[in-house]
Amino acid sequence: MDTTIKQSQITFGYSNILKTLYKRGQLPTVKYGFYGDKLTQKNVSLEHLIPHSKGGRTSIENLVLASKVNNSIRGNKSVIPFLNAECVMRYLNQFIGVKKFGFDGNEYVIKILDTLNKIFDKGL
């Protein structure tokens, strides 16, 4: 019996209102992930801007949606080399005006921009 774990089977099981709302279809405006990747119910994952392994928290200000493939490619490296301003802006714009129980898209955008500023300031 082969017990090898394939890359596509790896999951960290992180849960957050962001991913929960997406999986429930309650974020219909969100079609693209943080890196510009097309999101689907099957490929969506939570991506830590500051990697969990480097002290990043699993909290809304440090989490974005990305495909499992792009999340895996980045691993625990700094997000800086993976950033594309156009993709980041398209990602964030999808959340403007979104209000769901326990989630405010406008506040989320502000928090993500604050986290990105901290990352650049500290070179994380």
Portion of residues within helices: 25-40%
CATH class reads Mainly Alpha
**Nearest-angstrom radius of gyration?**
14 Å
As a percent range, the share of strand residues is: 5-15%
Which secondary-structure class do the elements indicate? alpha+beta
Going across the major beta sheet, what is the strand order?
A: 1-2
Tally of separate domains: 1
The name CATH uses for the topology is DNA Binding (I), subunit A
User: What ranges have pLDDT less than 50 throughout 5 or more consecutive residues?
Assistant: 1-11
Largest sheet: 2 strands, antiparallel
> Average pLDDT value?
88
Beta strand count: 4
Shape: globular
Summarize this entry quickly:
This protein is α+β, with helices and mostly antiparallel strands.
Structure commentary:
The chain has 124 residues and is an alpha+beta fold. It has one domain (13-122): DNA Binding (I), subunit A, CATH 1.10.30. The chain contains 4 helices and 4 strands. It is globular and about 35 Å long. The protein starts with 16 loop residues before the first helix and ends with a helix. The model is unreliable at 1-11 (pLDDT under 50).
